[in-house]
Design a protein that fits this description.
By secondary structure, the protein is mainly beta. Helix content is 3%, strand content 49%. The chain has one helix at residues 103-106, and strands at 3-7, 9-12, 17-23, 32-38, 45-51, 57-59, 67-72, 77-82, 91-98, 114-115, 119-124. The chain is globular, with a radius of gyration of 13 Å.
Length: 125
């Protein structure tokens, strides 16, 4: 799966940013999409995911209530709206897509079929 990510940048604590990620697969081919992040000195962390057909979502506890994941079927694009951002949100964010069933596996990055190029998000205090 080819993914094209965009967005990111620098923001002060409490600010907002939006990331987007588009896929080029045929309709119905992608089951789940989501975001992971990699911060300096830390392991990769699951951020959020969305089931493409149902719109069901899941979030990491660290971002729940602040981040919102959504998708636009017509544009084959997923969005991550990040509000009330914190310095600890600073990381490189990667979008990912999965074409096989296994909702619970997505957060473990198991069976991922494609990764987008990372986009840097920096939150200053």
């Amino acid at each position: 799966v080819q993914l094209q990510a965009s967005g990111g940048g620098s923001v002060q604590a409490g600010g907002s940013l939006t990331l987007s990620c588009a896929h080029s697969e045929r309709a119905g081919a992608v089951f789940y999409m989501g975001w992971f992040r990699l911060a300096p000195g830390k392991e990769r962390e699951f951020v959020a995911a969305i089931a493409w057909a149902s719109g069901n979502t899941r979030y990491a506890d660290s971002v729940s209530g602040r981040f919102t994941i959504s998708r636009d079927n017509a544009k084959n694009t997923m969005y991550l709206q990040m509000n009330n951002m914190k310095p600890e949100d600073t990381a490189i964010y990667y979008c990912a897509a999965k074409k096989t069933l296994g909702w619970s596996l997505f957060a473990e990055a198991s069976g991922i079929d494609g990764w987008g190029k990372g986009t840097l998000v920096t939150v200053s205090s």
